[in-house]
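Q&A log
Question type: sequence-to-structure
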Amino acid sequence: MKNVHTDLAVESREMYSESNDVEIEGVSVDIEETENYSITRIEIMNNNGVEKMRKPIGKYITIDIPNLNITDQDLKDEISQALAKEIKGMGYNKENSKILIIGLGNWNVSPDALGPKVVERVLVTRHYFVNYNKEFDETMANVAAMAPGVMGITGIESMDIVKGIVDKIKPDLLIAVDALASRKMNRVSKTIQLADTGISPGSGIGNKRMALNKETLGIPVLAIGIPTVVNAATMVNDTLDLILDSLKEQAEVGKEFYNLLDDLSDDDKYSLIVEVLNPFMGNTIVTPKDIDVTIDDLSIIIANGLNIALHPGIDLKDVNRYLR
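Response status: OK
Response body:
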């Protein structure tokens, strides 16, 4: 669907496949299923893939966890370890690396506070390396972290703040954590995406700022995000599809009308919904009612995953002790 925004590569692929019923040339897909979660690894390899997916060439890993909203410490620990494994698998656990973790978002707005909350919980170690004039430690990486806020609070572009820090401390890798937008409610707060293509702060709510990526910063950028919002028109559109499917099967009268609605193209249907909603609420962003607690839980999962992946001498027991 041309007009439906999603930050998730897996959803871009799904939307194309739904409309064309074929796989995309120039895009490789590998899916791993486990009892509690699934991992979809997508690689966009050429310009055809870029055109169809509307995302840059690179690797995108999506971890879908259907029961992540259920309070289960064992599951959260399992996902942290799975996330750490995927980070390492992307080659971001090299010795002697200097790493800068950036928590993007607005700490005053719960659905957008994921990045700052993660920064509060990652194990920062750069000061030890600086104070003791160390170049290498076999148990820990050289990690710095900060949350630059948003332009509405600071008056400064996140990119300008991050670029200044990168130029000053010269990290080998930047890891950016941010809240994302999904096109499906069942993925909100239940999906983690990793991408080696960087990130554009604010893109999830249509407030796209200057991108943080290798081209703008001169170093590799790993983006980690979780969708925390979906726009109202997208939610209505998906709900309408379910209703139409049900009515077509059950209705004895008016089936032709339901078929007519169902025959509308996805773009036309979405545009119609936006037009109807606009006088009343615009294209409102929707988030779950318990998002405050959810963001706290998700930030711990991501921070644990980062701490395990980046620090060789730290395991799950250590990070849980540190966070508590």
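Response note: The chain has two domains: 9-233+284-323, 234-277.
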